[in-house]
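Q: Sequence in, structure out?
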Amino acid sequence: MEGKTSRRAGLRAPSGPSLGSNRDSTRQHNLSTVLGLVHTTTGISRAQLTRATGLNRSTIAALVGELVQLGLVRESDLDQTQQHGRPSIMIQPSPDALALAINPDVDAVSVALVGLGGRIVNPVRFHTVRAPSAAEVVNIVSAVYTGMRTSLPAGQRIVGAGLAVPGLVDPADGTVIEAPQLEWREQPLTAQLAAALDLPVTAANDAVVGARAQAAFGAGRGVPDFVYVYGGASGIGGGLISGGRLLHGAAGFAGQLGHTLVRTGGAECACGSTGCLESEVTREELIRTAALPPGQADDLEEVVLAKLRDEPESGELWDVVTRQAQQLGIGLKSVVNHLNPSMIVLGGFLRILALAAPDVLDATLRAGGARGPREDVSIELAPLGDDPILIGAAELAFEPLIADPAGFLRGRREAGPVRDHAEEPAQPA
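A: Exactly. Output:
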């Protein structure tokens, strides 16, 4: 994509001993810092904010007061965990600011409202009988969103939408360049959704936003170097965190781990190659071998683990699980050798392989190769379900709000109160 540059900012790591500044000219930065800390901790005391930012108590009090007035945080009960001095007031994300999270896949379109702090509200999973077209996704999301919006309590506002796509997304304008399993090519889905919803919409790869969620709220929180690998109906993708920052690559497409070669002359992949990780390790093969009834794919992990508990380590299902665990281990070994992460977080159906055949996965990952990169890496599991993807999609929508809380909301008001429910009458739930 020549001539285009990414507008996506990486995860920001603290620089220097203090996150904040007491200079008036940096008030926007200080508001952003405080709101970001409240968001990712889902609750923090004034005393903790003072220590984390290096700002004095009166400045923190003023910043928190402004964020309260903006409807972005709330002051609640005193922090009784303090062992010295007076208890400090707790600051928590307000439930009034919401983002719309969207994740289309080959068998369903997931939509949810997500609050600051990564709190998912009334998620909807709309199952489809085949891979939906981009136009069908717009229609499904529009219908779901209308129902959600009209039932919101007074005072709540939807600040934007985040779109997580199982494919390549142009970081400059959100065009879906390619989503092979969905059979999408050059689809302007982001622009179509923005027009249909009358909301700002930001899009990114689903595994990449999952990595953002893990960095903010999950297993990767506080870990400066980790890799998130997600397996879903559309294949396998990854998100790479190095030095506390999300790696984008030259054109914004870093993290295509599903196309790591794991078997020479293997199965044909949707990308046109053979033997890719996502063509050798598939959810569909597990569903088929476990004889899972149609429409019960969400129960795959529970069913596979139950069947393996009831049967000896033999038979077709065990063979498939161990073979996929070996292929996953080969792919992860390449990741470890190239990136030297301290942690690998597995999400989606890849959890099954780590739970059912941990010894196989670990032995393959650590066999041969340079000792250094593989010696200390750990494997962790992301929470069960699609929550990290939806939470990560919401992070895309929250990013401009957190970067400039007052300016963002002022700009939304100037654009018109179309989606600001603070001025709308209460609607019946």
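The first helix runs from residue 27 to 41.
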